[in-house]
Write a structure and sequence with these properties.
NUDIX_hydrolase_CS; globular; Nucleoside Triphosphate Pyrophosphohydrolase; 7-stranded mixed beta sheet
């Protein structure tokens, strides 16, 4: 039997702040309804910036314009039924536009909401992962890296 190949999952997340409140999604997960930043997986052929713009729009209906990288995070979750899973998360902050009323949200998203850091800090049991609050705390602490901090090297088609 061939051993399972281990691969990390690459995800992106967006921090959008307006008047001291943060754009969040309430979503269905295996553990029930949870709060998260707009976030999702990097898809084949995408850059990280393309992924965070797409995921924010798909999950909230809000267009997103990344302004800075807040941080890169690694989280490993053990699972009793099989191998654990590791996520590499790239969290960006930026401006969110007004939602497109014609857009439909991803099926797992129940609703979008705006919460203050204090409101979010008061309900850690509702967070999708501990990274939800960690990313907000890093953002509030002023952590910012330029968008070109992560370089994307694209290889053209083979000839």
């Amino acid at each position: 039997m061939k051993p399972e190949t281990w691969l990390p999952h690459v995800s992106v997340a967006a921090i959008v702040e307006r008047d001291g409140r943060f754009l969040l999604v309430e979503e269905h997960t295996a553990a029930g309804l949870r709060l998260n930043q707009p976030a999702g997986h990097l898809e084949a052929g995408e850059t990280l910036l393309e992924a965070v713009i797409r995921e924010t729009l798909e999950e909230t209906g809000h267009p997103f314009a990344p302004e800075a990288l807040v941080g890169m995070y690694m989280a490993h979750f053990e699972r009793p039924d099989r191998a654990g899973i590791t996520y590499l998360r790239f969290t960006y902050c930026g401006a969110g536009g007004e939602p497109d009323p014609a857009s439909s949200l991803d099926p797992d998203i129940v609703r979008t909401l705006w919460m203050s850091a204090e409101e979010l800090r008061a309900c850690p049991e509702r967070h999708r992962t501990p990274l939800v609050m960690r990313c907000i705390d890093d953002y509030l602490a002023g952590r910012r890296f330029p968008l070109d901090f992560v370089h994307t090297h694209s290889v053209g088609p083979k000839r």
